[in-house]
Amino acid sequence: MPTKTQLHELYYWMQLTRILEEKLVALYRTGKVVGGVYTGRGQEAIAIGTAYALEKDDLLAPMIRNLGSLLVRGFCPEDALAQYLARATSPTRGRDCNLHMGDLGKGVIAPISMLGALIPVMAGAALAVKIQKKRSVALTYIGDGGTSTTDFHEGLNFAAVRKVPLVLVIENNGWAYSTPVARQTANPEFVIRAQAYGVAGFQVDGNDVLAVYEAACKAMDHARQGNGPVLIEAKTMRMRGHAEHDDAWYVPRDEIEHWKTRDPVDRFERYLRETGSMSEEERNTILRRINGEVDRAAELAEQGPLPSGEDAAGGVYHETT
Amino acid sequence: MSPTTYLEAIRQGIWEEMERDERVFILGEDVGIYGGAFKVTEGMLERFGAHRVIDTPISESAIVGAAIGAAYMGLRPIAEMQFIDFISCAFDQITNFAAKSRYRWGAGVPMVIRGPSGGGVHGGPFHSQNPEMYFVHTPGLKVVAPSTAYDAKGLIKAAIRDEDPVIYLEHKFLYRRVKEELPQDDYTVPIGKAVIRRPGRDLVVLTYGAMVYIAMEAASELVKEGIDLEVIDLRSLLPLDKETILESVRRNNKVFVLHEDTRTGGIAGEIAAVICEEAFEYLDGPVLRVTALDTPVPYSPPLEEFFLPKVPDVLKTARMLASY
User: Fold this and answer.
1) CB–CB contact B75 A132 (8 Å)
2) Domains of chain B listed by start with CATH number
3) Chain B: nearest CA to A186, how far in angstroms?
4) Among A49, A251, A260, B269, whose Cα sits 20 to 30 Å from the Cα of B85?
5) Angle in degrees, CA A275, A280, A281, rounded to 5
6) What's the CATH superfamily of A4-307?
7) Cβ A317–B164 below 8 Å, yes or no?
8) Is B51 marked active-site?
């Protein structure tokens, strides 16, 4: 069971993710984001519950709805804002967009847009951990749609055969763009795939940050002790469109309404209140801090210059200095 | 000292790098117990152990993807494609993950992807291909294709030591057909440097891989007719050694490209463009091409023979160019 401080930290990360994404959406609406905005609204508990379970030398590869994981891992709100605003001051200096950022110093490997591709790569990072006799664990994610790819199969199978410390989280949010799970797979119980690959598998309520955190801790222990990969299926719901351009008209309204009552941020807040783990004053202090941080980060990100055109050249190959 | 085959040269190069640098490891299908489909990794499992010589499932995308992940972690992976034709199954990992990583977020991916390429051994459409141009078109990769045992060893070592992903194409026709005495001492062959195999004064052919031998045979025929053909072995296709190419064009004034790869979109087109852009005024004739047909690689010997460029094809083109 997390301590009171940990509970407050989890709440901070949940709200920081939520409020930062709201800021990104607002910037998108005013035309300041040159590309698309992809949020993880409704899925914050999965990103945060899993990343919070990582140890210092562990490895993380986030997907597009895992802003929370990146924040927990040490990226700051300004990094995400500057990425979306295409600034020279962003972690990729304007070369890549959205959450496509990484930092090996933070143990974070940057994703690419091709779904599933991270799974073999993180299997390889976990293989290296084993070769180097370290005790790190590699964590990555895939959506329900991404489970249909070659790399999901090849990566998980490879990791299982080599028995490497990989934790793979399937965020089953019901929808892959406009395609529901029923048109993605004939067996919607994704956790069953763990058995097919001969790895441990857990199913968890993806809208309950404490349940996710507990499952992640269990999974990481299992992997760290040399028992091979773990597959976690976290059931959740994508509460917005694929990206902000998409109003998700194809998602039945009652499905959205049903999941609204299970909102992970509200639920966690209610839990903290009902168990007496966080006072109204403590809550207000945390929210004030987050709003201040996000506003300041947005200001700084907007002040950041765009890169100059000629910065597009170079950096493709190793350059000796 | 007995001469070393091209295949043994690759094996020695990998072996020596694995002895020299404990970060180097190899993964691929049947590379361990079996020693590789062509025996390039024979004995390595016994010498270096199962954690450095890794038999994998039949999963080319996972082999390359895992190599990328391991490279991020500070290792130096060598990913073997059992036949280079299967590299298409790993296309996304190579072109989108490995190649773009350094540019996007500064994380280099030092790794080698190697495997047997090329035809002439009746391998059929899926065991004979020359996939170089898919990768030459991808910024962030390097592509090398040695033709001699010396270069095979020197280039595999250079590729393993390189900070960027290198596609290393070993021509299976040459595996046991070419051999030479190799130096005892450690050496590398720099990536991005062509070599003049035969100096000439009348015209120059730019080629690589198994076609180097076709070019050399043609050159000995042509000399009898008073045509002195220079033969340049490109060795690296990306980066291309423009300096050596252009210097030779300026001296010889007539140039053609010979490659085993298919014609349309082959590197001959790229080289012709470079020459036209940078040495047009030195040309005394058109930049010509001798290439394979624009078809898949056929299986039956007469078909494959017809498909592949041959000495008479080179002679015909050289004579035509010489007559300008």
Assistant:
1) yes
2) 4-180 (3.40.50.970), 195-322 (3.40.50.920)
3) 24
4) B269
5) 130
6) Thiamin diphosphate (ThDP)-binding fold, Pyr/PP domains (3.40.50.970)
7) yes
8) no
